Amino acid sequence: MKKTVLELLSIFISVNAIIAQPKPIELPWAPREIVVDANDNLYIEFERMLMKITPDGKSSYVSEDVAKGFRGSVAPDAELMVADSKGNIFMTKPYMNSIWKLSPDGKFTIHAGNENYQNNWAEAAKRPMELGQIEFMVMDKQDNIYFSESLDGEERINKLATSAFHKLTPDGELITFRDKDGSKIKLNQVDGIGVDLAGNLFAGNVAERCIKKIAEDGTVTVVAGQCGKRDICPVYSQGDVSKAELVQPGPIVFCKKGELFFADHRMNRIIKVANNKVTTVAGASVIQPCGSNMGGRSKEGYKDGPALSALFNFPARVRIAIDSKDNIYILDGGNYAIRKLSPDGIVSTIAKTKK
């Protein structure tokens, strides 16, 4: 009887939370990137337009075109973004080798890049440097920027897409993650990165279907997934990290407790790694049998509500960000929407593109 009452109470709370959700903010284009700043403002980028949503739900445009006023190829783009503790937003786009800074007063400067990244319409980087082709960016609590670099030619492993990893300090020092022999640490087919409270870098290693931790001293360890166990027909299984399996781990964030959350592109789930356990925290789509897709997949969908019955559509694009209250914001690319996963386990839609 007591259990039944608790179940009914849980359903009542969930239903009321859903009813209380405000109408999603309408986006003019499909979102490409999100970031949350130190004041819990959510920024959404779509086709070089940049929108800001405050914690109380008010939306405004930071810029209707971040490249406006710049000429030639030297212009900002915000398809990749991170935000620091001072209100600055750092941006670039995949496979560019420069990083721009947008200050709170609306001024753009080239934060990092070589000497070719300067012209009469942009303030040049104070300390020119070669960055390589940037794939993903994250930022730690000390305002260090971490990024993965796409390697070319002979630097690749087994001729597959290969990434190296770097840290850019606020003082402009560029540090490459290297092993104990001094060689660049390289991983095949990275699909997202994250950084924990201690400054350790984490990478979703798609080629091996696992998540790896890269410490500053160059030590690489596995934190979740059975690396290299299955080439085809992958299996997603929860439970103890020594046995749990992943399919396509992507972007990673950490909550205040230090727990790791990531989006699995093909499972359409948000998954937590904590206390030596792998657990689904959001997403309930039906996993398809191997015969329907040897790469592994779950059926895409769209449904708000209690997290363990919510549906997502991640294969098109997924990004995640987390605020100071441990709300996880999810760019759900296949649904052209920004979703929010609250700490109490409710998924809601914050903003959505009108189709």
Please tell me about this protein's structure.
- The chain has 355 residues and is mainly beta.
- Helices cover 5% and strands 38% of the residues.
- The protein has one helix at residues 2-19; strands at residues 25-27, 33-36, 42-46, 49-53, 59-63, 80-83, 89-92, 99-102, 108-112, 133-139, 145-150, 162-168, 174-176, 187-188, 190-195, 201-205, 210-214, 220-224, 239-240, 249-254, 260-264, 269-274, 277-282, 305-306, 318-322, 328-332, 337-341, 346-353.
- β17 (210-214) and β18 (220-224) form a beta hairpin.
- The longest helix is centred in the N-terminal third of the chain and has 18 residues, at 2-19.
- Residues 5-11 have low confidence and may be disordered.
